[in-house]
Write a structure and sequence with these properties.
The complex is a heterodimer. By secondary structure, chain A is an alpha/beta fold. Chain A has ten helices and eleven strands. By secondary structure, chain B is mostly helical. In chain B, about 75% of the residues lie in helices and about 0% in strands. The chains are: A alpha/beta, B mainly alpha.
Chain lengths: ~260, ~270
């Protein structure tokens, strides 16, 4: 395994239990900065749980226990003394089904800007425009910025969620199968965006489609029954898998 | 099944037609623009303006107060703020409070009034109605908040929102149609309740000018008028019931329009 150079997120002996059953066990991974890392594995192997542990979203669910370390920028974010909103602000989230906020398109992006900064209305307007341009939505919706976000198509909603995440200037974008609810064209748009955005952000992508991982990932982590089986650069992983489970998964024998 | 539905629908039709038929005939401009004069209950002139305004002065502030308290409780009951055991206990208490007959709220407030040496007043009428409405409004807000998708909260949290910001700026907006429905339910209960204000707000022929004046309300007026032995006076009770029905209906229409407006932004 080649060591990634700049590490954004590192876990050390990460265990997650849900209702006393383990979901993740002894996860030790390194996620490189400003690259796209794909977390792959069969359904129920703990991909989403791993992703949501990075921004401490797991703790808003009942009966979840987490131990070990998750180190981001040299700090263990599982430390209870830390201010959780600051940790989460660093990590934008794109979920399977887009959930825009129950407000106008404009306010969806302005919301994040306003809760963190005291900025003028003009600055808000400029930043909203910038974020929408970043995700290629500006031209589609510039004339109906004050319509409810719920009126957008699912694909547009997903790009809006990406834009609102970018608005709070995160370091990492956590994407949980962001294309699984989308039609092929909308999915393609998201994939394209993610591969552009990795220049500025560390992208962590959970996906259950191997082809998507192959197309997009620089680095791959393979989870199987809550354990990390293999991790490495995309080239190594797909061309020279070391473990029998990885080989079987790539060959489509386990799913 | 068909028989059950028939009973429900026919009683609705009968109630409304009795109220409209009897009420509309005895309703006059005088009834709604004048307060009850001395001989009103004996068949002389005057109207029920004191009761109409009394009802509004009682139920509107009570519903406002109950809303403020209820939204606080309902927000707290979310998983994000309270421990599972605590919220379960609070919900159980609210359900018990919901089941308590309104006369008991009235007696409870009366006991406090006696202890404090305060007489029947608009203030304590409002307090009694507030207590009556809190469990109703809280439980319906609570239910509508429970329906807010988990993913929406995750989205808000991921932007770095605090629990409070998520609750007040995101969850509240998503749950708004349910919240409005709950408030309407509370207001409907409050404006139509006689038992809780019977001892607390008292009765008066005048429009209250301060919180410490006693006041009439439509339900208590109906109760008092019906006790009079003259059919011509009793007829006026229908007029009062008719006015009450109109008020409740208009509240329902207003809140439906508001509710429609608020669903505009709801994420499905």
């Amino acid at each position: 395994m080649t060591e990634p150079i700049n590490i954004q997120i590192e876990t050390d002996k990460l265990d997650v239990y849900y209702h006393k059953n383990y979901v993740l066990r002894d996860v030790n991974i390194k996620i490189p900065a400003k690259q796209l890392t794909a977390i792959i594995g069969p359904s129920g192997c703990g991909k989403t749980t791993l992703l949501k542990s990075f921004n401490r979203l797991l703790e808003i669910q009942d009966e979840t226990e987490i131990s070990g370390k998750i180190i981001v920028d040299g700090i263990n974010i599982l430390n209870n003394k830390l201010y959780v909103p600051d940790i989460r602000k660093k990590m934008g989230l794109l979920s399977q089904k887009p959930y825009p906020l129950p407000m106008s398109i404009f306010d969806n992006i302005a919301y994040g800007l306003k809760i963190h900064n005291k900025i003028s209305a003009k600055e808000v307007e400029d930043l909203v425009k910038y974020c929408l341009e970043e995700v290629g939505l500006w031209n589609e919706i510039k004339n109906r910025l004050h319509d409810p976000a719920s009126r957008l198509s699912v694909g547009q909603q997903q790009r809006l969620c990406l834009a609102r995440a970018i608005a709070v200037k995160p370091e990492v974008l956590l994407c949980d199968e962001p294309t699984s609810a989308l039609d092929p064209i909308a999915a393609q748009q998201i994939e394209k965006l993610l591969s552009t955005l990795k220049r500025d952000y560390t992208v962590v992508l959970v996906t259950h489609t191997l082809r998507q991982a192959k197309r997009l990932a620089d680095y791959v982590i393979f989870l199987y029954f809550g354990k990390v089986v293999e991790q490495g650069t995309s080239g190594e992983f797909f061309d020279h898998p070391k473990h029998s489970e990885t080989k079987a998964y790539i060959a489509g024998d386990i799913s | 099944m068909i028989a059950s539905i028939f009973i429900v629908i026919s009683s609705l039709v009968i109630i409304i037609s009795i109220v409209i038929f009897n009420g509309a005939t005895s309703l006059s401009i005088e009834m709604v623009t004048q307060t009850a004069s001395g001989g009103f209950y004996l068949g002389k002139g005057g109207g029920i303006l004191n009761a109409i305004l009394g009802s509004l002065f009682l139920a509107l502030p009570a519903t406002g107060l109950a809303y403020l308290i209820s939204i606080g409780i309902a927000m707290y009951l979310q998983r994000d703020f309270s421990h599972h055991g605590v919220s379960g206990f609070v919900r159980l208490s609210l359900d018990i409070l919901w089941g308590i007959p309104s006369i008991v709220y009235g007696i409870f407030c009366l006991t406090i009034m006696i202890a404090l040496g305060i007489g029947e007043s608009l203030l304590f009428g409002i307090i009694a109605l507030t207590l009556l409405e809190i469990p109703i409004i809280t439980r319906s807000i609570d239910e509508s908040i429970k329906m807010v998708p988990h993913g929406l909260k995750e989205g808000a949290y991921s932007l770095g929102s605090t629990k409070f910001e998520t609750a007040t700026k995101v969850v509240r907006k998503q749950a708004m149609p349910g919240i409005l429905a709950g408030v309407l339910l509370g207001l409907g209960r409050g404006i139509g309740d006689a038992a809780s204000i019977l001892f607390t707000a008292g009765f008066s022929d005048r429009i209250p000018t301060s919180l410490f004046d006693s006041t009439a309300a439509l339900p208590t007026t109906i109760y008092h008028i019906f006790q009079m032995p003259y059919p011509s006076v009793q007829q006026k009770a229908y007029a009062a019931a008719f006015v009450l029905l109109i008020i409740v209906l208009s509240i329902s229409i207003i809140s439906r329009t508001l509710s429609k407006k608020s669903t505009k932004y709801v994420i499905k």
